[in-house]
């Protein structure tokens, strides 16, 4: 934010009774307190959204779903985004990842800065807009070549840099592919070269494999789960294969006798050996994966504004095409199934291990299943496993606990908290549940009708809500320390964003609306340490002026 200028106070006749209501006005803060912002001690900004505008072009008119949204996500912090249904929270997440369905939606302007990378690079050249005479309809002419180039550049960002947990996880999974197939594809997409290197490094004939295998059999027959896990990990370490450790653990859990388990484990060890044809196929897949990573680095440079990397991107694309063309025989169904065998087994057991990380019961059976066979909570966990596989810089969690029971909600929130602590991921948590925000968020952004109307640290917002809409949201939540308190709802509905109200968009529902609220949009003002609000009831320095 740039330096602030003091906004003139409103005339007294614009205020009810000549002054702002005491219930809304914050305590006055000295200038020194306003200047003592804790930004110097706070983590660096990972994602900076500036004046983001996303419109949907319909036959009735232009829906201004996002109209000037600005906020920041910081390293290792969770930011809650709250508001009523229809305020634009999900559209915000889709716009950041550039997944807004086009048509009818289109990001119209603004900046989304991921570090030094602008995710909206080249947006202005992707489409032109022309209003039809005599109507509110807009004619859009798209440059599909530039749109395809933008989608290719975003492949370098999605998953590894920005991941998303969708609001409807059952619609985000393909019903005709197994869970192992879909999660395994994501794992290979993010860690393909490392996975293949691990397969090449496996040594099934190492001296310590035999004793470790017998230890797994003994632990499995003894039904000691902890000892079995330790023995399986030791077997994997002896053979230099993390996949073997997971497979041995689940084979040891079976009810078969010692001789059968020993034979099953020996078969698993033997499958670590790669034939000449399998090695050639894996080398081919590794070359493609390395070329994809190199191309992603070039695309990131393009998003950063480097105009000199275009020839390099074209050379890498030609090399990928030649690599595929040279090995086109791997596209034959029978050859492909045979060649992929070792890689599919490796990915399957890595998927099982990742499902263990999200605490799915019986993950080996779930990995073999299909989305329609899982409950809503299990599908949500699968989506979280996919999102966490790349350990992203930013995680967009669009109502990850909706329609789940309380126990599952707590476990999912704990998983997100663990990712934030372990990796330092910045999380944007979209939810209707203010109790969840109070529990896990560091900062809160309150959204109404496509605009951010208040931002603050979570404790500050709950102790000192400023905007009448924020106060209304908090007044509708029961409090355990005030059981006799009667709940109050906010009258009216979220406005039609084709023709939103003039001035402040909340004024038709606001109990403190003034004449000026109906005419002019209130500026965002600084009302404390990183506490901003867009309301004429306050008179702090104007933000961004």
Q: What distance lies between the first and last C-alpha atoms, to the nearest angstrom? A: 9 Å
**Count of distinct strands:** 16
Count of DSSP-assigned helices: 19
Overall morphology? globular
What can you tell me about this protein's structure?
This protein has 545 residues and is α/β, with parallel strands linked by helices. Among the domains are: 45-69 and 92-168, no CATH class; 169-196 and 276-391, no CATH class; 203-270. Helix content is 42%, strand content 17%. The protein has 19 helices and 16 strands. It has helices at residues 31-35, 89-96, 144-154, 169-172, 179-201, 209-222, 225-238, 242-252, 258-270, 276-303, 310-326, 333-339, 341-357, 363-368, 376-388, 406-423, 434-440, 458-463, 468-475, and strands spanning 5-6, 45-57, 62-74, 78-82, 105-114, 117-118, 127-131, 138-142, 162-165, 394-398, 426-430, 443-448, 451-457, 524-526, 532-534, 541-542. Strands 9-10-11-4-12-13-15-14 form an eight-stranded mixed β-sheet, with helices on both faces. α6 runs antiparallel to α7, α6 (209-222) packs parallel to α8 (242-252) and α8 (242-252) packs antiparallel against α9 (258-270). Mean pLDDT is 82; it is low at 1-39.
